[in-house]
Amino acid sequence: MLDIRPVVHLIGLLGLALGVLMLVPAAVDWQAGNANWHAFARTSFVVCMIGGLAALTTRNGLDAGLGRRQSFLLTASLWAVLPALGAVPFALGAPNANLTNAYFEAMSGMTTTGTTVFVGLDDLPPGVLIWRSMLQWLGGLGIVIVALVFLPVLRVGGMQHFQAEAFDTMGKVLPRVYDISAGLLQVYFGLTFAAIAAYMAFGMSGFDAVNHAMTTIATGGFSTSDQSFVKFTGPLEYVSVLFMVLAGLPFIRFIQLLGGSWAAVWKDVQVRAFLRWIGYSVGAVIAYRLMTSDAHVLDVLRGTLFNVVTLFTGTGYGSDDVAAWGDFPLLVVILVGFIGACTASTGCSLKIFRYLVLFEAIRAQMQRLRRPNEVVALRLGGKRLQPDVISSVIVMFTVFVASFILLAVSLSLTGLELRTAITAAWTAICNVGPVFGQEVGETGAVDGFPVAAKWLMIFGMYLGRLEILAVLVLLLPRFWRG
Amino acid sequence: MLDIRPVVHLIGLLGLALGVLMLVPAAVDWQAGNANWHAFARTSFVVCMIGGLAALTTRNGLDAGLGRRQSFLLTASLWAVLPALGAVPFALGAPNANLTNAYFEAMSGMTTTGTTVFVGLDDLPPGVLIWRSMLQWLGGLGIVIVALVFLPVLRVGGMQHFQAEAFDTMGKVLPRVYDISAGLLQVYFGLTFAAIAAYMAFGMSGFDAVNHAMTTIATGGFSTSDQSFVKFTGPLEYVSVLFMVLAGLPFIRFIQLLGGSWAAVWKDVQVRAFLRWIGYSVGAVIAYRLMTSDAHVLDVLRGTLFNVVTLFTGTGYGSDDVAAWGDFPLLVVILVGFIGACTASTGCSLKIFRYLVLFEAIRAQMQRLRRPNEVVALRLGGKRLQPDVISSVIVMFTVFVASFILLAVSLSLTGLELRTAITAAWTAICNVGPVFGQEVGETGAVDGFPVAAKWLMIFGMYLGRLEILAVLVLLLPRFWRG
Ligand SMILES: [K+]
Ligand SMILES: [K+]
Fold first, then answer.
1. Is B444 helix (H, G, I), strand (E, B) or coil?
2. Any stretches that span the bilayer, and where are they (chains A, B) (predicted)?
3. Among the ranges A61-75, A185-199, B264-278, which has the highest mean pLDDT value?
4. How far apart are CA B261 and CA B423, in angstroms?
């Protein structure tokens, strides 16, 4: 049997931390003279108690370190349990959501998806808004740690290509977390504060700036307004693009930047491909819109840049109705949503790196078609691609596409119209945010979806954020055997 | 430089054969007292001349056999040149089509796609109808030879897994063609005659039976009526299902059957998976329709069986409006269209075999996630899967999906509505037949599509039928170098 004590211990500790952090929205609501602070304070107390107790009763659990299977179980449990805890204040206080909606919103937060079931955001207590943003910010931080530390050792989806040189045994997973945490926190806080300052400098209120900075750096996309970024069109869109792109870069490079190594960022093949592909997709949509609409050129440039980048990086803000631009722009944004950002960023979806591996595999295959006996070495960023990396990446693609299709079919069975079902599956699996279709509310909220559709989306967001395989492996009966 | 004489020689010979075969529709129209026989007779004369001349001037071309690159060039040229020759009668006589439409129809025929740009089929001269059916029948026969002989040696898309034991050098490609031709022709004619007899026994006229038998065995889907199979609802649908499924089985097994080996058919893992998946998809749609409509149970069973099987096998007849059944059935048929039938059948799309390889790769990967150091052997049908087969299959999937997406995007740029563009790309790349969407005519014909969309579909059908990579390899500059 699998020893689950280390897992319970770590979840307990992180639950405790989440409970403590609930004091932030409590303080905000209290400060605003809003009675809603009770909901956060009470939940905080209970969550701290439960988390603390779980940690205490398993306090020696970590003595043996964290094994391979325990790491899988930890990752999968964290993104199921923490959103449940984070959802409680939504149910107890404003907006007085039912359990499905509260869990949906918290899951959409922690997975940095950004689809919302809340309508009337502008009138919600500030504590609720900041809590939504904090859930995304924490989810983004968490996923970077998972991608930097766990996925490479667990060999999920080709991430073993990024296994750091000095570190390749399971025994060192936890020490490694502590190692990178200092640098990562510096980077993450630094980017967030820079974003707050920039948003404020270009005219956002302090409160809006803090919220949007957190959801930008997490490529999360929650906003403080039903209209998302429509309120902030203009220079703020350029500011946002800058920080969304930064949030989509590999965070390990920022950590190296702290050590003074600029070259690491610019020489990263992922970074180059990411920027190039953004250029292509933005350029294609701009060309299309200039030919098909008579909007002002500068408006087209800015609007296209912002809305394509926000969907490319998987952030999901909106400052315009992309679906109204035409079918071609809609197809483009859906495609780039399937790409996502760089590995170990807060971005989601399949990621640039996997596409580069795939292209390299295709190139080699074409070469072999021509001359079957030629030996072709596959490389990426100057490092040899191991066969295991290639097959992992490819399995990831398959499982990703299959999950998307299954989810779309299941959503259509709940009664959603085809376009709605397909874009809802896309937004969930790729953690993007917006859904396009007739059942989507005027504010972009999906509160009107059937309950079954919401749960399917919850499951999709969860699967997508954890790179699917890290969850599916738990479903193997073999996983649980000794 | 590549010596193209053997390629020209073989194309010349096959063009000559096509010219001779044009005497069949000429005779049919002459017999029917229809002046349209002129179009076929004149074309026949010219095509025979050109084909004969090409063959004569290169008559020593085959002395050195057929090399690897020549085989690629031959396959790719055949499916571009023969449809061009076959299109001439459509342009010269009835239905007096323009060049785009004539080539579209002939390409849709030779690739066994079955999408039509002709309206008023019921009133066309019988020679034109039989010529359309013959193009599909010939295209089906041709593709089985390509799949049995060329693709395995050329190592396209994992087909090397089916390389016959006694035969693995390029030098024996042509002898191999002659070897299997006798058996294959017996099987192909046998199935066709059986289908003619069965269709007539259940009430089709001799002419309808011959046409539909040819397009059934080719999984082509051209009909003699604008209403496709609506005229033949009832027992004929069951007859058709039987022969469509037979046409989707691996023809090599039928050849073995001639030698008395029944076990070969039933033990083939592809065959079992094919039948099982047909069962699942038909069952799912029947369940959905029974719950959502109040049509008579037997009508639901028969209509669903027929329409799902016709799209699964890539035949593409229609006896009912599948899109009107709901979004779920539509999604199911689109998905099964992406599967297709068994290798070396007349069926198209990605094929059962590739999915089985993919599932096997996923299974192995999941096992490695759990225990990274375990050695996992991949097998299919009792035969070890070579790494090269797996990576070829996977590249095929990628290229297939990428082509579909690119084609859908390009089609949407020609102004087609999203659903039309997507299903047109699907029908072209998977060689299925029907297109769903508002721009499709009442009879299912796509004559109203923009010219650019038609050419994109022509290219898509061509790519899809030749397993894409067999064409793309010609685009490598390296291919043409010594
Ligand atoms: K997002
Ligand atoms: K077809």
1. coil
2. 7-28, 40-59, 71-92, 134-156, 177-202, 238-266, 273-291, 328-353, 389-409, 455-476
3. A185-199
4. 40
pLDDT at A82 over 50: yes
Greatest alpha-carbon span in chain B: 75
Q: Which two tokens stand for residue B469?
A: 């990579």
8 Å CB contact between A378 and A389: no
What are the two backbone dihedrals, phi and then psi, of residue A121, each rounded to the nearest 5 degrees? -55, -40
A96, A130, A126, A102: which is closest to A116 by C-alpha?
A: A102
Residue B40: Cβ within 10 Å count: 29
Q: Which two tokens stand for residue A297?
A: 């050129």
ipTM for the predicted complex:
0.83
Count Cβ atoms within 10 A of the Cβ of residue B437 and give its class: 0-12 exposed, 13-18 middle, 19 or more buried. middle
Q: Which residues of B touch A68 (CB under 8 A)?
A: 372
Dihedrals phi, psi of B379, to nearest 5 degrees? -130, 155
Cis peptide before A95 (omega within 30 of 0): yes
Is the Cβ of B151 closer than 8 Å to some Cβ of chain A? no
pLDDT average, residue stretch A71-99? 94
Whose CA is closest to B68, among B173, B158, B201?
B173
Sign of CA dihedral A46, A50, A56, A60: negative
3-state secondary structure of B73: helix
> Which residues make Cβ contacts (< 8 Å) with residue A109, sequence separation at least 6?
A83, A86, A132, A135, A136, A139, A220, A222
Shortest CA distance to B449 belongs to which of B423, B428, B420?
Answer: B420
What distance in Å separates residue A292's CA from the closest CA in chain B? Answer: 11
Pick the ligand that lies closest to the CA of residue A244. Answer: 1
Q: What is the maximum alpha-carbon separation in chain A?
A: 75
Distance CA A114, CA A106 (A): 10
**Residues A37/A29, Cβ–Cβ less than 8 Å:** yes
DSSP B250: -
> Phi and psi dihedrals of B269, rounded to 5?
-60, -30
* CB contact at 8 A, A473 and B369: yes
How is residue A295 annotated by DSSP? S
Q: Specify binding-site residues of B for K(+).
A: 112-113, 220, 315, 431-432
Question: What is d(CA A166, CA A179) in angstroms, rounded to the nearest whole number?
Answer: 12
Of the partner residues A154, A328, A409, the one whose CB lies closest to the CB of residue B328 = A409
What residues contact B318, with CB distance under 8 A and at least 6 apart?
A: B228, B229, B230, B307, B310, B434, B444
Tens of pLDDT, residue by residue over A181-216, are 888 999 999 999 999 999 999 999 999 999 999 999
Determine the residue type at B245: V
End-to-end Cα, chain A, rounded Å: 5
Report chain B residues whose CB lies below 8 A from the CB of A391: 361, 364-365, 390-391
Residue of A nearest to B327 (CA): A418
Size of interface A-B (CB pairs under 8 A): 107
Distance CA A392, CA B66 (A): 38
DSSP per residue, A28-78: HHHHTT-TTHHHHHHHHHHHHHHHHHHHHHTTTGGGG---HHHHHHHHHHH
How confident is the model over B447-475, as pLDDT tens digits? 999 999 999 999 999 999 999 988 888 88
Residue B280 backbone phi and psi in degrees, to 5: -60, -50
| B384: DSSP letter | E
